[in-house]
Amino acid sequence: MSTxxxxxxxxxxxxxxxxxxxxxxxALVAAWPLARTIWFSFTDANLSDMxxxxxxxxxxFEYLLTDPDWWRSVWNTLFFTLVSVSLETAxxxxxxxxxxxxxxxxxxxxxxxxxxxxxxxxxxAQMWAWMLNxxxxxxxxxxxxxxxxxxxxxxxxxxxxxxxxxxxxDVWKTTPFMALLLLAGLQMLPSECxxxxxxxxxxxxxxxxxxxxxxxxxxxxxxxxxxxxxxxRIFDAIYVLxxxxxxxxxxxxxxxxxxxxxxxxxxxxxxxxxxxxxxxxFTTVYLTLARIGDSGGDHP
Amino acid sequence: MLRLATLTAVxxxxxxxxxxxxxxxxxxxxxxxELEYCQSGAQAxxxxxxxxxxxxxxxxxxxxxxxxYQQLLAAGSGDVDVFQIDVVWPGLxxxxxxxxxxxxxxxxxxxxxxxxxxNNTVDGKLVAMPWFTDAGLLYYRKDLLEKHGFQPPQTxxxxxxxxxxxxxxxxxxxxxxxxxxxxxxxxxxxxxxxxLEWVDSFGGGQIVDDEGKITIANEKAAEALTFAxxxxxxxxxxxxxxxxxxxxxxxxxxxxxxxxxxxxxxxxLGQAPDSPIKDKIGVAALPKGGEDGKSTGTLGGWQLAVxxxxxxxxxxxxxxxxxxxxxxxxxxxxxxAYNPTITALYQDTDVLEAAPFMGDLxxxxxxxxxxxxxxxxxxxxxxxxxxxxxxxxxxxGQAKADxxxxxxxxKLDRLSRGGRW
Amino acid sequence: xxxxxxxxxxxxxxxxxxxVIVFYAVFPFYWAIVSSxxxxxxxxxxxxxxxxxxxxxxxxxxxxxxxQNILNSLIVxxxxxxxxxxxxxxxxxxxxxxRFRGRSLLLFTILGVSMFPQVAVLSGMFELVRSLGLYxxxxxxxxxxxIFTLPFTVWVLTTFIRALPKELEEAAIVDGAKxxxxxxxxxLPLLTPxxxxxxxxxxxxxxxxxxxxxxxxxSGEQRTVPVAIALISGASAYELPWGNIMAASxxxxxxxxxxxxxxxxxxxxxxxxxxxxx
Lengths: 300, 421, 278
Description:
The structure holds 3 protein chains of 3 kinds.
Chain A: H1 3-40, H2 59-65, H3 68-100, H4 106-118, H5 121-131, H6 138-145, H7 159-187, H8 191-199, H9 204-232, H10 236-242, H11 251-261, H12 265-290
Helix pairs in contact in A: 1-12, 3-7, 3-9, 4-7, 5-7, 5-10, 7-9, 7-10, 9-12, 11-12
Chain B: H1 2-16, E1 23-27, H2 32-49, E2 52-56, H3 62-74, E3 82-86, H4 90-93, H5 106-110, H6 114-119, E4 121-122, E5 125-126, E6 129-135, E7 137-141, H7 142-147, H8 156-172, E8 179-182, H9 189-201, H10 219-231, H11 245-253, E9 257-262, H12 265-270, E10 281-284, E11 299-306, H13 313-323, H14 326-336, H15 349-354, H16 357-360, H17 362-366, H18 373-376, H19 380-395, H20 401-415
Parallel strand pairs in B: 1-2, 1-3, 8-9
Antiparallel strand pairs in B: 3-11, 4-5, 6-11, 7-9, 7-10
Chain C: H1 3-36, H2 55-63, H3 66-97, H4 103-113, H5 122-131, H6 138-162, H7 167-174, H8 179-208, H9 211-216, H10 225-230, H11 242-262, H12 264-274
Helix pairs in contact in C: 1-11, 2-11, 3-6, 3-8, 4-6, 6-8, 8-12
């Protein structure tokens, strides 16, 4: 028994001792509730008396997969996710490129785009709900002023525009976050390539497509997947803007409605479990891509 | 755990003597006037008895409020002693409430509308006392109808014509924010009430009949909802698809609507001293669905129930007794146009002077159409959600009425396992 | 068109684009401030520079326990920050400085937890809160918020700790110092900037959280600010309380914006270290 291995053993012991408090809390607030939710999804538990739950096997999932409303909420969620994340990526990239240039007014721009990020989602949803009001909203007033429309549009009421209203709010709120992640990626790019490109007199646009974008790809992918995961869970913005309206119902809203409004804990948990599985798939992809947590690495 | 705490509290009270003041928390009202009247009534009781009251504010939308109540009661929490519950909730929440039939005398109970007492009786237990009743009404601008030479409409088709005409002429005369008709069509419980009125007035039944048979997929119902869809974007703003009661009243009371469908509460607010449309308001029963249709209004209204988990059940019951008494109901009827549930008050001269429509529309209130809450029991919420979502699709032009109602019937059939509920 | 002119034109176009972005980012908040200064009837007229009128601000505090709500939010957010920093720092030391079997797997799991959709744990969490007797009490929120603040705190602090040179603790180990002493005496001073950054982000996350706060609290006195704002109801019998909602929104947002502007660089570095939810 060498002293080195004894030291290693004692260090391992202290490592677990240090991890214990965190692990206990996470087991309590994450592992246990998740396990319970998955268990409930196989029962007919009801909110008014959860202890009387009976095991019903896959009945909830069977019902769920044949429920057109569920599929509608899945489609809404996917549509919302794809559109808003694409818009955020494009806008975020533009802002990041601007912030990366050494130009006057950079600080102002950074400050401006951080404001939406700091505002609570609920508050931003309320602000936009007010701006989008059909009779008194400032957005309709402006559009009428410049003559685009002659009657106020009911943005959040019309099923065709409601989902776009939600997307607009989400884009406004999360684009800054995207921009900051991409900016960090840009600042890590090697400057040699750019100098070479400059000497060869290549057009800046071409430099962007041929040099910047390929080099930025890993950072971009990580940021996009991160936002995807977030968008798939969307709840509060939709809840405030359009409530339980089916036209904009997301998977999270569907699950909460079943759980809380209909007291059907079993069925709501089944919906939650499916949402969890969807996100788990994406998370796995993300972790593989990000290749974080070097296995052991060269750290002591 | 909680039971134990309750028990300890009760024992503590009996040892400490009943002279100790209790704090009773009551959850009532969300919208301005409703909250004010509940507060002033509860405060008056508190001063009389030396207890204290606490008002718990709740969300404005009935759907949200119910969700909150369900969570609270499911948690067995004594945070709220007295609940204000909707006419469709006794079946859903009844198991959490104290049976009041032992605490109120037969005379006290029979003074109220029998239909509502029956509605509040679940498995032989009186789980809530009637507080005020509601039915959907048609509000119209007396001055505008007179100016353009119209009588209040008898049928929906007439309403549509009159609304269109006055709207166009008023806009031409300079009020470009004028609309013909506002109501509640956001996807929530209020749309269930509105849509049931259209369907029932055309003779299309009540979604699910008393035997539990699903009747909604019929031609009359489709005709009714097709009519309703025709109002959106013509005589009603498109925004109506996101309106609850207060949004509709906002447009109406600013003087920007000819007709409005709303509950009685909007009367006294519209008659407030600073209201731009004071003394220009007429109230009538909602129009018929055609010559052979009928006038109808959805039965609404609120009851007061005492939670099983209350720490001070005796005081809580006493508060309910005070708030549902003839005296308090009369005060609320005169000041806030809350329809009494006590039959005798409909002949009271003071009440009729303050709210003349109560006398004129007595039949509307007694014959109001009930939502199918009793027969569908614990599933009522889902039924209502399916119905208002389907109505919302029809109104917003996303689906044709007959197809959508057929799909709705299939869904309800699945939900009820073939009408067995 | 000369080359210089083209460049100038490009520059003008570029600045124009930036101006549009700044306008899009800032206008909604500006509009909320403007609306919050309008008394009742003015609310429904579009007017870009009204004279400040504080009626709505008074109404917000008079009509609901909004002061109490702000206090609740503060209590919850501060408790969440302190708790997650304390637990996170210990865990991050172990993960960043000690090699043991299962370390990578543990890191992956922790990151995975931060991706949980809230609704997926809602029913289980509700049951947990009820069985602990915490329903409608602030500790319920402090506890449930750990699910997203703790993994993120651990993750970011681990990243920071790994970046520190390893000679640091070697001297202390040779002197025979206990690991806990090393954490408090050696790492804590060096990690202060990182702690401020992660603390800020955890604070903002807890301050803004809605779903758990909506589900686990009931009475107006126990609500946090986002729920209070979502459920605000007007007491004036006259119009929808948009003025109050906007006033409440401004009150809640201003401190956050001040925080963000003050700690801009820190927040950016924290975000990029942990790629955290905004």
